[in-house]
Specification:
Beta-lactamase, two-stranded antiparallel sheet, 12 helices
Length: about 400
């Protein structure tokens, strides 16, 4: 994906001449779209390869399933599962907060008290709150992928140059490895593999489909991901090599590669998660998170800064305040992995939801917000649902 300003500019300049994708067929359920052609133009503009769009406004819901119309392509249906990349972070944070509610964890406990051996590292003073708000000082480096592929521990990643880029709490720096360490903490606290922790604490209570452990899923249900303007030749990604390894038991020293972005689920499941967050921790009228933990999740803990002045971050939660999109805060997350550009968002005050999952999409950014997610939000909130009667 384009990771720097120059790379993003070059990527965006090349998009208009990117190879033409196969045409998409569309099937709708629920509320019919008032402006379906506008949505289809957005899919074409962003080179989308198969998608599921869910729009919810009050008791009205529209679901659109768009499939690549070429022989052998995976059809997108109600049964499809998507790798939702960093949308996983909302689930990971919710699991941590549930354990905090039960007194098994504390947000301001340092890693030295949470992970054996952490006290002897430079990360000893990093807290769970800092991991979940990307203020830990940790940075993503190639060392994490190298350690995962080589079966090494999180300690090996910390020893690599550049992993600790600043003092804990000093500044915001988005870090997948930090959320991976949160998964290690979950395993250490429960004695269960992270897939079972997230299932027990979040997926099953909220009625969400899918799993963090792809080896337990039907591969035929998973929508493969195709990159736009890929620099690497190869087949579409359905399940990564790491995802094929069953999470049969806890390994809190090595299971740092899952809780940042390895969840497979669908749009209705994410709708339940967003609804709980926006309802102050209530699910179907029953407490899921305490009011205090729900408030911690949704309050601003860090800001993105000059590059993305409309973006801030809670605990595992992206917060958008952009009057060009909405007069209200938008809560949720976006996810980029192997060519997808997913988004799951809920507008505060109105409760309107926009969930867009795909099997490939332009990864261009506007600041740190995906251009595809920005355009889908602008279309859904400002045009499509605004026209629903």
């Amino acid at each position: 994906m384009p990771s720097g300003k120059l790379a993003n500019l070059v990527y965006r300049a090349a998009l208009p001449v990117a190879g033409v994708r196969s045409a998409l067929t569309h099937r709708a359920a629920g509320q019919p779209l008032v402006h379906p052609e506008h949505y289809r133009r957005l899919l074409a503009r962003h080179h989308v390869s198969g998608a599921s769009l869910l729009l919810q406004s009050g008791d009205r819901r529209a679901e659109i399933f768009s499939s690549v119309s070429r022989p052998g392509a995976k059809e997108v249906t109600e049964d499809s599962l998507f790798r939702v990349a960093s949308l996983t972070k909302m689930v990971t944070a919710a699991a941590v907060l549930r354990l905090c509610d039960r007194g098994l964890l504390q947000l301001d406990a340092p890693l030295a008290d949470l992970l054996p051996g952490a006290g002897a590292t430079d990360a000893a003073g990093i807290t769970l709150r800092q991991l979940l708000s990307h203020t830990s000082g940790l940075r993503d480096t190639p060392a994490a992928d190298e350690a995962l592929s080589g079966g090494k521990t999180w300690q090996a990643v910390l020893e690599a140059p550049g992993t600790l880029g600043s003092a804990p709490g000093e500044r915001f720096a988005y870090c997948n490895f930090g959320f991976g360490l949160a998964g290690c903490v979950l395993e250490q606290a429960t004695g269960l593999p992270v897939s079972q922790v997230l299932a027990r604490e979040v997926l099953l209570p909220l009625g969400m489909r899918g799993s963090l452990d792809a080896s337990t899923l039907d591969p035929g249900a998973i929508v493969p991901i195709t990159r736009v303007l890929s620099r690497h030749r190869g087949p579409d990604v359905r399940v990564t090599p790491l995802g094929r390894i069953p999470l049969t038991g806890p390994d809190p020293e090595r299971h740092f590669g899952h809780t940042a972005g390895a969840l497979y689920t669908d749009a209705p499941s994410l709708s339940r998660l967003l609804g709980m967050i926006a309802a102050g921790g209530l699910h179907e009228g029953q407490p899921f998170l305490s009011p205090a933990m729900a408030a911690e999740m949704t309050r601003v803990h860090a800001v993105y800064g000059k590059l993305s002045p409309t973006l801030s971050y809670g605990l595992g939660l992206l917060i958008i305040l952009d009057p060009r999109l909405s007069a209200h805060r938008i809560l949720g997350h976006q996810g980029f992995a192997y060519g997808c550009a997913d988004g799951a968002f809920q507008e505060e005050k109105t409760g309107r939801q926009v969930i867009f999952l795909n099997g490939g999409c332009s990864e261009a950014r506007c600041g740190r917000l995906g251009v595809g997610n920005r355009d889908i939000l602008r279309y859904a909130l400002g045009e499509e649902m605004a026209a629903w009667k």
